[in-house]
Structures are given as structure tokens and as C-alpha cells.
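Render Peptide-binding protein in 3D.
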Amino acid sequence: MKKSKSLLLLFALVLVIGTVLAGCGGGNNAATNTGNTAGNTPAATDGSASGEKLAADQTLKINLTSEPPTFDPALANDSQANTVLKTMYEGLTRMNDETGQAEPGIAEKWDVSADGLVYTFHLRDAKWSNGDPVVAGDFVRAWKRVLDPAAAEPAPYTYQLYYLKNAQEYNEKEKKITDFNQVGVKAVDDKTLEVTLKAPTPYFLGLLSFYTYYPVHKSVEGNAKWATNKDTMVVDGPFTLTEWTTGQSIQVSKNDNYWDKDSIKLSTINFSLVNSSATELQAYESGQLDYAGNPNGEIPTEQLPIVQKKYPDEFIRKGIASVYYYEFNVTEKPFSNVKIRKALAMSIDRQTLIDKVTLGGQLPAFGFVPPGIAGGNGEYRTAIKDNYFTEDVAQAKTLLEEGLQEEGLTKLPTFTLSYNTNDNHKKVALAIADMWKKSLGIDVKLENQEWAVFIENRQHQNFQVARSGWTADYNDPMTFLDMWVTKGGNNDTGYANPAYDKLIAEAKATGDAAVRQEKFAAAEKMIIQDDMIVMPIYYYTNNTLIKTYLKGVTHDFSGAVDLTRAYLLEH
């Protein structure tokens, strides 16, 4: 389907390239806003913009549509957890969303060897929330937990540490290396951490601000449930966990032991846990919330055109480097048949879905890597077009018939499409199920699941077709493509292709931008055009309402939000 010229212009205006971490991190100074810019004006000494006055009550109120399953940085793998973890932890680096560059976090400075393989980080005088000093050994401990091959619950982002020398060899069940001391991380002394990579990684500094790389306090040892209790959460970031009422609310409060506490103006952030977009909008309009909408909340889709006109100084629409898709359990018949998967992908009308259902200005997706991701020379999506398939109902019918014959079937059995509880996901699922019914005569059972259950079912391949979305963890195509390697921690489809694994390994082994782009393009073609393990639907936009008195909130290129330097003006 041909993309709308106006939508392409929107993305050209709002997406900025930079080596950043997202989901996690990033930068974008060119957001196309229809009002409030979320406070990117120079700050006065009291933290407010020049000539403005801070509110006496610095309590920020925001909603999460789903409760984070865990606050253990090793086990987290969702955007809800990311937003809250970012308030409580800090890695060696943190991302500056304005510049799109990694800047000093717990590491005050660093040295990089001429070959780009050895990073020596010099830690500042930082403290944990209980007053203990943050030391290099805290990072070694954390990364060892992530890579532990005997972990009771494997870390979903283990592969993000495979950039370290011997990390993969230590983590793999075959245990090619059994001594963790051979992995490329070493505490030279309390203030010096030495990291050795297996290959030069241009985005490594940005990756270090991702939550899987956060340090953990020594008190976690021997306490499997430390991340479920506020009283055992010792953290090193701007805020500490002070309340957690399951299913109702989460509260974090300013950490007076944080090394940069003078830059933190908020005293408290209250996160409500409500999965109704209508309720969230009502709460915003009544003043119970200071912020509503993406990435952690939702505005009802049918209300987007209305609130855009009603609140022109508060509504923000921003193209982001994220993709919305359905994934197939390729280990289960009949979805083990690629022709059936292709038929489902080719038989829906993405632009109609956007124009009539989502109403958020998204872009139809025919690839997996979204606009806004850096490539070998400029933007990846500019060089490598997402034309891996087309919408063609006639061809879809032919493919479905051929696939059914190969499976010994005359009709596709009713199957279940799973999605996490959310008004907008439900509307999309209903619309797509209706398109499948009209185009292919297929009957679909829709099943909504609570977030934690949904995530667990996907991870254990307890599904047939499931809704999903992916946000960049750093600004490189690798963050969208290495997840599909055999037995990858976030590969919920069960896809296993040695040829694909080889392409990703080759891309990771070289610093040649042209070669990397060639490997990425071949890999993306393989998972979409050749094997169709996922069905791309659209590239996201963030639609957000932010009160004009709320300043200092930043969004990176992927749409992830950073609340840590926010503040409230008198109102």
C-alpha cells in the first residue's frame, strides 16, 4: 500500500537520528507538537524556566495501563517497568533525550581503547538509597545475575550482554566457559570498572543506560523476592519505591542519597494503575492526572480528534521508532505453515485500520524496523524500503488455499487471537478479525488477558496468534532484529533458523556500516518476506496530553518517557 504523503512528512519532521538507548532511551528535538513542548526551556536556579515559579506541591500524577510484573532489572522487559525503573535506577550512563547522546551517569568518565574493545569506567562518589557507596562490584554482580546459566528464571534480555567478551559462551547451557572471571567485566577497584567487548559496538555507551545493565545492591543475594517488596528495594537512582499497592498504585519518592539530587525537583511521583482509557482521560480532564496517554497510558482512539482540538496547548502527537504487530506461534499447526501466515498478513487493510480505528496518525508497516532508526548512512528505512509484501486479498486467498492443502485441511480452524487488556488493542483486534472474516472467511476467537499473564503466555508460546509491539532499546536496527535469533529471550514465536542466526552474528562481528546494513536487510527480508513469523501492522505514534504547568518531561526517539527531571509550576 502506498503511504500517505502527509504521514511521511510527519515522520520526516519528527524522527531524529542519534546513538541512543530507548524503551529505554534516546533523543528528539524536532517533535511535531500541537502545543506543549513538555518543558524544554532553559531552567532557572530553582529548576523552573526563567521567570516561572515552582508549585509548592511537587507531586506528579500519571497513569500506567498495566502493572509492571517486576522491578528486577534483570527480569524486566516491558515499557511500564522501564518508565518506573528509570526513576529508581541509574546505569553507568544515562541518555540525554535532548541531544540523543549518552552522558555520564554513575560513571563520571570513561576511556576507550584505540581498537574500541576495552572501556574503562571511572565511577563517581554515588550512593545507594541506604547510604552504601555504589562500587564497581555492584555492576559485576548485576551482570553476572543476568548471564547466570542456572538462573531459576532466565533473563529475557540476556542477549543484550552478549556484546561482552565470552558472555554468550558463559551463559549458554553447553557452558563452553564455566568461569565468570573470563567474561569481559572486571572490578579493577571500587571506583574502576573494566569492560571488554567481543567486537567494536558503536552504540555501546547508549546501551549501558538500558535497565538490564543497571547495578544491583549486595542485599539482593539470597533474597529471590527482593524486587517485589518496597522495604527490600535498595536503589541508586533519583527516586525510591515508597508504596506499591498491587493492582491500584505505585509511588516513588525523591532519593536524598542520589548523587545529583539537586537536579530533582519532584518530591513524589504517583502512578495509578487503571487499564481503562476512558477513565484515564476523565481523570486528566478533572485534574487527577497531570499527564495522560502514551507511552504508558491511553487516550480513547475515538477521542483523539476531539482532544486535539479541545486542548491544542496540551496535546502532542509524535512519530516514534516503534512497531505494532501480531506474532505467530510458528511451532504450532497450522501456523507452522508460512503460506497461511502470509495469507493473514496480506488480507488486512492497514490504512483503513488507521483511518477508522486507531485514529492516531500511524504509518502502515510492511517491514519490522520502523522509521527513525539509524542505518549505515542516514536512516535505515530510507535506504531499505519496507516493501517486503503487499496487501492483496486475491493472492491471500490463493496462499491460504495452498497452505490448507499442504496441511490436509479444507478450512482454517477457528483460532485464538490474544491481546493484553486494553481498549485500543481490543478495537484493533475486532477490526482485523472482521477483515479476516470478510476477506478469507476465517472465524477468530478474541481473548484478552491481564498483562502479566499475557506476557507469561507469550514467553512460553502458550498462544496461536498474539498482539505485540516493540520499542527500540537503542538506535540501531539490531535492536529490532537480534530478538528473533534461535531461543532469543524475546523470541516468543519459536522461530529457529540457523541462516538467520548467521546473518545477525555477522552483523555483530563487524564495524563496517555498509556490511552491517546488508546483513540487516537480508535478515529483515527473511523474517518478513520469506518466513513471515510476524505480521507488521503499523509504526506507532505517541499521542499524549500534558498539562501546561508540567515541565521537564522528555520523550526519546522511541517514545519512551523520562520523568526524572520533571517539575510542576504554580497553577
